[in-house]
């Protein structure tokens, strides 16, 4: 019996000009797994995210979302099929309040931007869902504060709220804790865990504390290939990974008690 994975990459390759940047990636992520994608600078992590979210098409290979091929779909179509991505560059509206940002995201996900009448009938549901999201990301006390007046960590939390607003079951987060202090980071890991319960999560991450605090599995990308995909413990113990990349970062994170 074949398994349907939440996300599956089969021999995915991507060339930019004559250079092969992604060199035959295979990855099978089970529904509900939290996966951290790690690797040295320039290894191809962002390119992989761009391929999965449809920003680029692969040169060859298949990408399946819940068993359905998405490698030729647009980002919009892929989003409608249940995958949502947040960016390092923020995707919130600075001059809208917390509540308005969330409501916009909910309405957009429901497709209400297209017809005014659908919009009116959906408004009540959208309001309720936006309130619910606001509680989930712990910004209920900041309901009417403009996004631009939130702290940096609160803006990142709002961004997560916007990302999960449509109820996608596969979530891609690009360095969700980048730029945060240590205490903000540990609170944020907790928040990400809470809001992604039952969802499949992929995150590109450099901070080993975050990786080991968040991930069920780690995918190690080195020079356009996934050289290991396993539990944190197994990846930590993997000699190939130690040699190619981790070494001192893992030692540091272990010393730090993560
Ligand atoms: N649109 C593009 N056109 C040409 N080359 C690209 C493009 N996007 C990425 N690259 C190249 O692909 C390689 C992988 O880049 P990518 O950004 O995916 O790496 P990364 O692992 O995310 O790195 P970092 O950790 O520094 O963000 C780099 O050599 C980069 O210069």
TrEMBL record:
Does RNA-binding show up as a keyword for this record? no
**Which parts of the sequence belong to the ABC transporter domain?**
7-248
Q: What is this protein called?
A: ABC transporter ATP-binding protein
Question: Which GO molecular function, any one, fits this protein according to its record?
Answer: ATP binding
Task: Report the CDD domains cross-referenced here.
Answer: ABC_Mj1267_LivG_branched
Alphabetical keyword list: ATP-binding, Cell membrane, Membrane, Nucleotide-binding, Transport
Please indicate if the UniProt record lists Cell wall biogenesis/degradation as a keyword: no
Query: What range does the record give for the signal peptide?
Result: none
Record SMART domains: AAA
Query: What PROSITE patterns does its record include?
Result: ABC_TRANSPORTER_2 (PS50893)
């Amino acid at each position: 019996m074949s398994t349907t994975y939440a996300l599956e990459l089969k021999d995915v390759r991507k060339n930019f000009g004559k250079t092969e940047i992604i060199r035959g990636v295979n990855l099978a992520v089970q529904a509900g797994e939290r996966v951290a994608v790690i690797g040295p600078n320039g290894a191809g992590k962002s390119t992989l995210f761009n391929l999965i979210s449809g920003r680029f098409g692969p040169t060859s290979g298949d990408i399946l979302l819940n068993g359905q091929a998405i490698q030729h779909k647009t980002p919009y179509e892929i989003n409608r099929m249940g995958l949502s991505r947040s960016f390092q560059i923020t995707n919130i509206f600075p001059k809208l309040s917390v509540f308005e940002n969330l409501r916009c995201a909910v309405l957009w996900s429901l497709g209400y931007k297209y017809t005014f009448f659908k919009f009116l009938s959906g408004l009540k549901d959208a309001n309720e869902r936006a309130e619910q999201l606001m509680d989930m990301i712990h910004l209920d006390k900041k309901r009417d504060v403009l996004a631009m007046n939130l702290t940096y960590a609160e803006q990142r939390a709002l961004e997560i709220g916007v990302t999960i607003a449509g109820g996608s079951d596969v979530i891609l987060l690009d360095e969700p804790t980048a730029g945060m202090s240590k205490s903000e980071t540990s609170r944020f890991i907790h928040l990400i865990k809470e809001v992604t319960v039952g969802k499949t999560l992929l995150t590109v991450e450099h901070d080993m504390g975050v990786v080991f605090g968040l991930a069920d599995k780690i995918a190690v990308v080195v020079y356009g290939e996934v050289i290991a995909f396993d539990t944190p413990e197994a990846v930590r113990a993997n000699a190939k990974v130690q040699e190619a990349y981790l070494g001192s970062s893992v030692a540091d994170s272990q010393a730090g008690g993560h």
